[in-house]
C-alpha cells in the first residue's frame, strides 16, 4: 500500500496570513492551481482558494489591502507522509476537498491532490471514488 510520501508534491507554493490577496491569486495563476496553503513559521494556518478570493474579497469589493488571513479558510484537514493513499482518499472524500496538505512535526512537507492520485495507475480507483464523493451534483432549484 502506497504512502502519501511517495506521491506528494514536495515544493509547495504558499502564502502567509499577512500577504495580500493578489499574491495568492498570482501564485495560483503562475502554478495553475486553485488553492494555496497559508503557512506561518512552517505551520499550516489555513487554505485560500480561488473561490475564497472571489467570494470574500472580489465580490465584497474589497481593495488590495485585504490580507490572505482575512479571506482564508481556517479549518484545514491535513494528512501525514505515512498515511496510505487509500486513507487520504477517504479523508478527502469525507471532507469534500481536492487537495490535502501533508504535515510532519507540525510543518508543511508536501501537498497531495486528486490529480496526484489519478496519474499513478494503482490509485486511479481511490481518486475516482474521492472525486465522485466530492463532485456529487446538487439538485437544481426550481
UniProtKB/TrEMBL annotation:
Could you name the domain of life of the organism this protein comes from?
Bacteria
Q: Which keywords label this protein?
A: CBS domain
User: Pfam families, from UniProt?
Assistant: CBS
Please report the stretch or stretches of sequence annotated as the CBS domain.
8-64, 72-131
* Keyword set includes Kinase: no
Q: Which InterPro entries match?
A: CBS_dom, CBS_dom_sf, Diverse_CBS-Domain
Q: Which residues cross the membrane?
A: none
The protein's name is CBS domain-containing protein YhcV
Q: Which organism is it from?
A: Kroppenstedtia guangzhouensis
Q: What is the lineage of its organism?
A: Bacteria, Bacillati, Bacillota, Bacilli, Bacillales
Amino acid at each position: 500500500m502506497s504512502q502519501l510520501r511517495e506521491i506528494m508534491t514536495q515544493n509547495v507554493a504558499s502564502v502567509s496570513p499577512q500577504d495580500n490577496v493578489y499574491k495568492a491569486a498570482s501564485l495560483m495563476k503562475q502554478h495553475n492551481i486553485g488553492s494555496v496553503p497559508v503557512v506561518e513559521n512552517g505551520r499550516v494556518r489555513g487554505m485560500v482558494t480561488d473561490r475564497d478570493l472571489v467570494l470574500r474579497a472580489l465580490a465584497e469589493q474589497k481593495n488590495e489591502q485585504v490580507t490572505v488571513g482575512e479571506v482564508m479558510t481556517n479549518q484545514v484537514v491535513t494528512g501525514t507522509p505515512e498515511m496510505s493513499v487509500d486513507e487520504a482518499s477517504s479523508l478527502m472524500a469525507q471532507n469534500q476537498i481536492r487537495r490535502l496538505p501533508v504535515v510532519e512535526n507540525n510543518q508543511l512537507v508536501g501537498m497531495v491532490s486528486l490529480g496526484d492520485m489519478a496519474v499513478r495507475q494503482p490509485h486511479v480507483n481511490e481518486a475516482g471514488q474521492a472525486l465522485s464523493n466530492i463532485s456529487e451534483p446538487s439538485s437544481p432549484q426550481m
